[in-house]
Amino acid sequence: MPKKIDHEQRKVKILQTALDVFAKEGYKDSNLSLIAQECGISRPTIYQYFKDKDEIYYYAVKLVTGKMFEKYVDFAWNSDDNVLDRVISICSDIIDTGVEHIGELTSLVDVMFYMRKEGTDFNSVILRRTAKLNILFKRLLRLGLDRGDIKEGTSIDKVTEHIVLLLESFCIELAFLELKDATKNKDLISTYLNFFKA
């Protein structure tokens, strides 16, 4: 009797293996043959799931950011903490996740620079993937303003923009410098956000 294949499980295995290959080899030097070899499957089998390595990477970014966002939404609306403390906790988790997955993060930055050299604008991909997080921060901060957790007159749009910029700069710093201690970044975000506490 032929072995039944769990296609979703295989797709996730291809993604995880591809991220490892990208992290080890660099995006430019990675290819589907290498990914297939590391997965223990044939290259034509990968084509059943993905048309090229770009699609693998976009799907991986989508999968990771989607899972993270679900976790943050659940925490954001099911916590009794002060709203700014919730935002700080979410940012802290994003930073910890970056440190935990430094290879994939470095690979992401590698992909961004490679694609930029090739004339592809990777910013639109990142903006699409982080749009939900921006909206979550804005909604939380508005709730904090309404509840009196945040000082009146605080510009929700500006604070959200600053949070995202701090997180992006941390990710780039981590990818280039491979710093394992993220304490100063967490402290910076916490200090910044605590300034707005009512």
Can you describe this structure?
α4 runs antiparallel to α5 (83-100), α4 (53-77) packs parallel to α7 and α7 (123-147) crosses α8 (156-177). The protein has a single domain, classed as Orthogonal Bundle (Tetracycline Repressor, domain 2). It is elongated. The protein contains nine helices and no strands. It is 76% helix and 0% strand.
Provide a brief overview of the structure.
With 198 residues, the protein is mostly helical.
What are its keywords?
0% strand, mainly alpha, 198 residues, Tetracycline Repressor, domain 2, 9 helices, 76% helix
Low-confidence stretches: none
Name the CATH superfamily assignment: Tetracycline Repressor, domain 2
What count of domains describes the coordinates?
Answer: 1
Structural class, by secondary structure, is mainly alpha
CATH fold field value: Tetracycline Repressor, domain 2
Number of helices: 9
Beta-strand content bin:
under 5%
Please identify, by name, the CATH architecture: Orthogonal Bundle
Tell me which oligomeric state these chains represent.
single chain
Helix content, binned percent: over 70%
Main sheet properties: none
Shape: elongated
Task: Give the CA-CA distance, first to last residue.
Answer: 67 Å
